[in-house]
Automatic annotation (TrEMBL):
GO terms for molecular function: hydrolase activity. Keywords: Hydrolase, Metal-binding. The keyword Amino-acid biosynthesis does not apply. Residues 12-206 form the Metallo-beta-lactamase domain. Coiled coil: none annotated. SMART domains: Lactamase_B (SM00849). InterPro entries: Metallo-B-lactamas, Mito_Persulfide_Diox, POD-like_MBL-fold, RibonucZ/Hydroxyglut_hydro. It comes from the Bacteria. This is Zn-dependent hydrolase.
Amino acid sequence: MQVHSFLHSDTETYTHILADTQQQVCALIDPVLDFDAKSGHTSSISVDEVIDFVREQGWELLYIIETHAHADHLSAAMHVKEALGGQLVIGQHITEVQKTFKKIFNFDTSFRTDASQFDILTNDGDTLKVGDILITVMHVPGHTQADTAYIAADEEKTVVFVGDTLFAPDVGTARCDFPGGDAKTLYQSIQKLLALPDDTIIYLCHDYPSAGRKHCPTTTVAAQKLGNIHVKDGINEAEFVQMRERRDATLEMPRLIIPAVQVNIDAGHLPDPEANGVRYLKVPLNAL
């Protein structure tokens, strides 16, 4: 098993490649599309580096995995799929997120809320194979209803891609104030992750390092239990919920939540061009 991580500096998001190098197959987790909110311009410059790396290795891409419908970046899943193939994977509870945000964006009846835009919908306990690597699905709601972690194991080691549940120990945990989020549910999800063996390597979706620390894509279960500022050992559910809800009440919405969510619940598809050939995103006023 090899994991290669690519930092998208603008959104501080990690895209990970999970590979069985013997069988020359891989999966790609949480690809990012460049988006300039000031101009509305999209670009694939960053994700093309990831695509080029896969091609250079000669690996076949089996899966493009989204840990959830991100609110801080636009998914590059469609660009990756066009370039490398692969099936697009997301947790089946994405249907709940689609229904919630269909109302917020007032999408018409053509917008599908059955998640048929995706290729594979996973449920807790499901498995996928990347060569000799077994991926086990863990539903970890709280940040959103659909957040899903993917535990990858072979004979050498076990790693887990946690999406927006846990961050580095000095950063803490994900917010829970988006529609469908819940702090108590997130605490319970995190306890499932922290029940994994202490030496399990955690691959983060984001890192927002404190002063003096460089970005790092990984931590461990042991490090989280010892030092996560929000959920280390000794912090109970009531304490976590109180902290999380108070903290969330002070946070601004992510700067890209409006463009990101409406694209990402549609599997990374950009809106169809209108009669003038231009694509348009919607901005709901006073709705978030």
